[in-house]
TrEMBL record:
UniProt keywords, alphabetically: Signal
Family matches, as SUPFAM superfamilies: Helical backbone' metal receptor
Top-level taxon of origin: Bacteria
A Pfam family: Peripla_BP_2
Record InterPro entries: ABC_Transporter_SBP (IPR050902), ABC_transptr_periplasmic_BD (IPR002491), Vit_B12_bind_prot (IPR054828)
Organism ancestry: Bacteria, Pseudomonadati, Pseudomonadota, Gammaproteobacteria, Pseudomonadales
Segments forming domain Fe/B12 periplasmic-binding: 26-270
GO biological process, alphabetically ordered: cellular response to iron ion
Name of the featured protein: Vitamin B12 transport system substrate-binding protein
Length: 270
């Protein structure tokens, strides 16, 4: 009997040893949006390197760079000895993504297609960082803000909106792109929601055919160009609206506030 109890005790002890969770101490973020999420979770102290693309948050301005968007410096990445990679697939080319797989470094891949997925992934990233409670709190706050926005801007008949990404060639966002979901939160519908590509190239004729009630763009000259087609409802009503906040392009917690600004632009009367 003593031998049995000793065996059970040894199993219990060994089980407790192997049950110890992996401790994350050296994180490399491979997308600016994921870097922002780590900062929003008050966990910038875990970051040892980031992929650059534009201005950095002040909390990580002096961190080593592991390259720029689409150009990962693999040698520099390995020199930082990360124990966790945060990856958005679009920020790293296919060949280098395959290289990363072969390195066997624990990797969390985030590619939210709507704002609810974004809040869920923020909580999941907090788990990966070993700080789950911070994720629970932040995700709950963001979900409440989203709920309030949906209630405030809900329409029985959604506004038909064309979201212009670029003009030459003409690009928009497809239905699986998170900006398309932000439009829905604001009581609008992306007129190209049926397209599956995240950033499909389209024609002027396709826009004219879908006859949006609102046209959104980040450049005034691009908006003014649509005045050549006064038959478009958005032009006739003067609904050529400028969106200057770049926050919609970065799916992190701040995107909820950027969505609130978008809703105010689309429907200021609400």
């Amino acid at each position: 009997m003593l031998r049995v109890w000793l065996a059970v005790l040894l199993l219990a002890v060994s089980g407790s040893v192997f049950a110890v969770e992996r401790v994350v101490a050296r994180v490399v973020s491979l997308a600016p949006s994921l870097t922002e999420i780590v900062v929003e979770l008050d966990s910038a102290d875990l970051l040892v390197g980031v992929l650059d693309a534009g201005e950095r948050p002040a909390a990580i301005k002096d961190l080593p760079s592991v390259g720029r968007y689409g150009q990962l410096d693999m040698e520099r990445l390995l020199s930082l000895k990360p124990d966790l990679l945060l990856l958005w697939p679009g920020s790293v080319g296919p060949a280098q993504r395959e290289q990363l797989k072969r390195l066997n470094i624990p990797t969390y891949v985030a590619e939210p297609h709507n704002l609810e997925q974004l809040t869920t992934q923020i909580a999941a990233i907090a788990d990966q960082l070993g700080r789950p409670q911070r994720g629970v709190v932040l995700a709950a706050q963001l979900r409440q803000k989203l709920h309030n926005l949906r209630q405030r801007y809900r329409r029985d008949t959604p506004l038909q909106v064309f979201y212009q990404v670029w003009d030459r060639p003409l690009y928009t966002v497809g239905g699986g792109q998170i900006i398309s979901d932000a439009l829905q939160v604001c009581g609008a519908r992306n007129v190209f929601a049926d397209l599956t590509l995240p950033a499909p190239q389209i024609s002027v004729e396709a826009v004219l055919q879908r006859n949006p009630e609102v046209i959104l763009a980040s450049d005034q000259a691009q908006l003014d160009a649509w005045k050549a087609w006064p038959q478009v409802t958005a032009v006739a009503r003067g609904q050529l609206l400028l969106v200057t906040d770049k926050g919609l392009e970065r799916p992190s917690g701040q995107m909820i506030e950027a969505t609130a600004k978008l809703c105010q632009i689309i429907a200021p009367e609400r």
